Fold this protein.
Amino acid sequence: MQLIRGKEVAETVLAECREEIAHLKARGITPGLAVVLVGDDPASRAYVRSKDRKCQELGLYSVRHELSAETTQDELLALVRQLNADPAIHGILVQSPPPPHIDEAAIVRAIDPAKDVDGFHPVNVAKLALEDPTGFVPCTPLGCQRLLQASGIETRGAHAVIVGRSMIVGKPMALLLMAKGPGGDATVTVTHSRTQNLPAITRQADILIAAIGRPHFIRAEHIKPGAVVIDVGINRIDDPTSEKGYRIVGDVAFDEVAPLCRAITPVPGGVGPMTIALLMSNTIKACRQLTATT
Ligand code: NDP
């Protein structure tokens, strides 16, 4: 069984980023990322801070806007417009989920698609479906694809089964795996909470992507021996033996599933580090595209 070490692959992605940043800086350009957080959800706050920290480590220009939970839709829209117009900012990310009074879809639509490094804007969703390489693909599925490629796992002709159909993970993952070319060319099945007899379908998977949000949901009964399993899940479960009182586990019951697999990602240390690395990479791509001289 091969353990797919996301941390190591993420380091490779970040090394490529450093190289590209050096080239851009030689042209007098510093890629800039603006991260906006509304409210005080602790998990979101932690994500936003780690994104900011990673920018600083790489020498990117980064701006963090932490707004109160009472911020209005209009105030948030005004900030997005200001960032759209700011030439020092090439990537804009509004951390999800915002408080319930905010219309998240409207905020996403207000972001300049050329700066939408999360890849959630309808223009970028369409570009992914159209296989237009100028678009931005959501960082987590992009990271999963890169993990497969870096681990020498052939997607061409493989049956990939995805559990989950969210716009953040499941759907873009399906589009990436079914796209033509390296890292794609798979036969893709997408499953969700209304799928009947899920284990019978997941047992057909050469590559199984779990993006459900339920701790240890995928068990031995879901796995075809020799399958490759990518666990996207990040779930907190109570753990009185840990200092924090909780620990992070994936959507896959790792101990039970790993012995059956050809390869599997751990949680933590699998998909998680890839997401942030691909965010950096998307920001650099945005900068490159916005500053390209023709
Ligand atoms: P969502 O809640 O948006 O989507 C979950 C999906 O799982 C839905 O499509 C849902 O089906 C499906 N599902 C729920 N229960 C079942 C079930 N019993 N059987 C089959 N399918 C089911 O979650 P996200 O896609 O945003 O995230 C999924 C997981 O990935 C979470 O743990 C999240 O924390 C993690 N995540 C990790 C990231 C990373 O960086 N590693 C980044 C983003 C997410 P239906 O559509 O029918 O409701």
In short: The longest strand covers residues 32-38.
